[in-house]
Amino acid sequence: MNLDLTTFFAQYPLLRAGLTAAVVIFVDICALVILIAASRERKHGDMRWAKESRGLMLTCGEDVYPLSAAEIVIGRHRKADIRFEDPEISRFHAILTLSGGRWQIEDLGSGNGIAVNGRRISEPCRIRKGDEIRIGRRKLRVVRGAGRSKPA
């Protein structure tokens, strides 16, 4: 038995229109289900990130820099995540990393180094709320909470 759908639908145009409408509705429902699932996953992901990152931020004077990625580069270069126009800061001066719910800072071979709570570091150093990080002439404070972000 050879079924030619073109001939079949030519004989029954209303059936073709009905099936087309049903397929469109089915695709729309699938898209809606995917959007709802993605929205729920995003909310859960945001909650997991907030717990993992511990809601920490860096402040420098009035400026606030949320720690919103697992790796954050600090430096003078335009591609640095946190950028300072300071000749005492290297193009890629330091990197902040989040691992296992703990933030740490590491010097990337800068000329002037990094100090955490007044002590110059030579290897990755864990940072916590209340710590002070000195990079070049900038004094950064590790804080928790919401604030107004400095535009990039």
The total strand number stands at 11
Q: What is the helical fraction, as a range of percent?
A: 25-40%
The major β-sheet equals: 6 strands, antiparallel
Distance between the termini: 67 Å
Rg from Cα? 27 Å
Overall pLDDT confidence: 86
Structural class: alpha+beta
As residue ranges, the low-confidence spans are 147-152
Please tally the helical runs, counting DSSP H or I stretches of 4 or more residues. Answer: 2
Order of helices and strands: HHEEEEEEEEEEE
Spatial strand arrangement across the major sheet:
2-1-11-10-7-8
Shape: elongated
Strand content: 25-35%
List strands and helices in order, with pairings.
Blueprint: H1 5-11, H2 13-53, E1 56-60, E2 63-66, E3 71-75, E4 82-83, E5 94-99, E6 102-107, E7 114-116, E8 119-120, E9 125-127, E10 132-135, E11 138-144
Parallel strand pairs: 3-4
Antiparallel strand pairs: 1-2, 1-11, 3-5, 5-6, 6-9, 7-8, 7-10, 10-11
Provide a descriptive summary of the structure in words.
- The chain is α+β, with helices and mostly antiparallel strands and 152 residues long.
- 32% of the residues lie in helices and 31% in strands.
- The chain is built from two helices and eleven strands.
- It has helices at residues 5-11, 13-53; strands at residues 56-60, 63-66, 71-75, 82-83, 94-99, 102-107, 114-116, 119-120, 125-127, 132-135, 138-144.
- Strands 2-1-11-10-7-8 form a six-stranded antiparallel sheet, with no helix packed on it.
- A hairpin with a 2-residue loop joins strand 10 and strand 11 (138-144).
- The radius of gyration is 27 Å and the shape is elongated.
